[in-house]
Design goal:
Elements lengths: L2 H6 L8 H4 L3 H14 L6 H13 L4 E5 L2 H11 L7 E5 L4 H9 L3 E5 L10 H7 L4 E4 L11 H11 L2 E5 L7 E2 L2 E2 L6 E5 L13 E5 L2 H10 L4 E3 L2 E2 L10 H10 L3 H18 L15 E2 L5 E4 L3 H9 L30 H9 E4 L7 H17 L1
Parallel strand pairs: 2-3, 2-4, 4-5, 5-8
Antiparallel strand pairs: 1-9, 6-7, 6-12, 8-9, 10-11, 13-14
Helix pairs in contact: 3-10, 4-10, 5-6, 5-9, 11-14
Length: 377
Amino acid sequence: MSATSSASRNVPFIDLSPMHGPLKAAIVDDLTRLVDTGAFINGPEVAQFETDFAAYCSTTHCVGVASGLDALRLALLAGGIEPGDEVILPANTFAATIEAVVQARATPVLVDASVTDYNIDVDAATDAVSERTRFILPVHLYGQLADMRRLQAVCKASGIGLIEDACQAHGAMRDGLRAGAGGLAAAFSFYPAKNLGAFGDAGALVTNDSAFAARVRALREHGQLEKYRHEFEGYTARLDTVQAVVLLHKLPLLDSWNEARRAARAFYDEALEGVGDLIPPPTAPRSLPVWHLYVTRTHHRDALGDFLAARSISTGRHYPEPIHLSSAFSHLGYSEGTFPVSEALASELISLPIFPGITEQQMTLVAEGIRDFFEHG
């Protein structure tokens, strides 16, 4: 096999070049102008992106910050979290969700995931509410919203707040709600591999509460309500103008990129129907996910991943260590078997390549490799 034909059979887990290629020249031009102006901190592009992204999320305010973790932590702090307050969140999530709670000096209370969408089990969250509960923090994992309508009802009945971790769900909808518009606030990450990605770390918080947004703006900049007037302890957590420039170019294309992800999901579903013991990612009723990740379940996850890697097909494992069993959070006292759904997902999920611009040839190679594994591997 020639070097060219061999390279054509490589399938990366993610390739950003199909998205960046058409935008490169315009972005470089704007970055060159930014170098000339020197408006690297709180430049006009930051305010413009905040306006545009708030409108995209159907909210009235957006505050650009340095990362999705910053958005989560500042949301809790701006919401008035106090030491000893409890925050209910799913055990099936990335570490940043629980890190935000711990760094805000609150107590994380984990609950299991639901098999219907792999997001927070609303019944378990309801049972976990106590007199110390301050917030429920659902995570819209893999690009699908949690059951926000039910969570809204739980929070209203209990008098507690609702903050969304929407870091993987830019543009997703469920039951008529858009990601970011269902609670007091929502956090987004613009890590480069996200559906809407920057050229480095970046994030944002969206809300419909003006006073809340003002407090987050102060928190992201040393607690200043105005220059050198520090009302409370803050952070350096601003969205860089460089990243705002990039995001302004990408935001108008986000919906088309999400449609491309949906088309890729449909291809995999059809190509892999009935193959081995694969269970495709579930879609909840009245849900319109954006498929940040395509996660499929199999009892042969590790062997399948190794088999595909030998064919130069990259896959991901999100997330192989359940957060409640990690060393970093062992002090919370959770033991193996506490959250059986989350633990099963951690051992069985394999993420297949999915990104805007992935070709039918690449997805066919993935599907053929998986079929070969179950038939001959």
